[in-house]
Write a structure and sequence with these properties.
Length: 243
């Protein structure tokens, strides 16, 4: 009994549950119940933790709090943890390595920022990042990429055959206002305080741009966006694989 009590007290101290040890489960908040579940695992001294979407039933504020607590727990215990989630924000902020899977197949494995900066295919490109990467069908012509009525430079370091059907990828934060580039009509402006998200319609497609500064235009305005070729991406249209 003394050994059991010692393990329980240690787990409660790690998880900040010591003041609540005499409470019934119904008297605990959602976050506290999640910590109790983690405590049950900790007292077993496992070699591996498995978390299967542990935050999916919590509200947004509590998810952020528990995300931090789970990461701090991992840093303290140094126990290998396998964390399953459909929330790419959780994956990006908590993982040392991410395994992106689709239909039971591994699409890419790597550090979070490696997957963000160099996605292996269009599936990973669309999944990692919020808002997700803009993906536009195009064709290589004259050493450039023809997309949505614009001629854009090939991404840095990329070579592609003339006439190759491709998918051009650019993250929302890598678009800037310009006199040349992708021209469309503003559909939605979403100010978040620290950023402004702008949805632009061009030739039947939608493009999302993220600006650090506040913008002086609204829905219905015509704007031109220039992608940064140094951080743009090119994928094969037929296979979806990175070129």
């Amino acid at each position: 009994k003394d050994a059991v009590r010692a393990k329980v007290e240690r787990a409660a101290e790690i998880l900040g549950l010591t003041p609540y040890l005499d409470r019934y489960p119904r008297a605990l908040s959602g976050g506290q119940r999640q910590r109790v579940a983690m405590g049950r695992a900790i007292v077993r001294d496992p070699q591996v933790f498995l978390f299967d979407e542990p935050l999916s039933n919590l509200d947004a504020k509590l998810r952020v709090q528990m995300r931090t607590e789970i990461k701090e727990l991992h840093q303290r215990l140094k126990t290998t943890t396998v964390y399953v989630t459909h929330d790419q924000i959780e994956a990006m902020t908590m993982a040392d390595r991410i395994v992106v899977m689709q239909g039971g197949r591994i699409e890419q494995v790597g550090a979070p920022l490696d997957l963000y900066d160099r996605p292996a295919n269009t599936f990973v490109a669309a999944f990692i990042g919020s808002p997700s990467m803009n993906l536009i069908d195009g064709q290589v012509a004259g050493g450039r990429v023809e997309v949505a009525g614009a001629s854009l430079p090939l991404p840095a370091g990329v070579q592609a055959e003339e006439g190759h059907d491709v998918v051009y990828g650019i993250r929302p934060e890598h678009l800037s206002l310009s006199d040349q580039g992708l021209t469309g009509t503003v559909a939605v402006v979403e100010p978040t305080g620290s950023e402004t998200h702008v949805v632009v319609r061009l030739q039947g497609r939608e493009l999302t741009a993220v600006f650090r500064n506040r913008v002086g235009f609204g829905p219905g305005a015509t704007i031109t966006l220039a992608p940064d070729a140094a951080v743009s991406h090119l994928f094969d249209k037929a296979t979806g694989q990175r070129l």
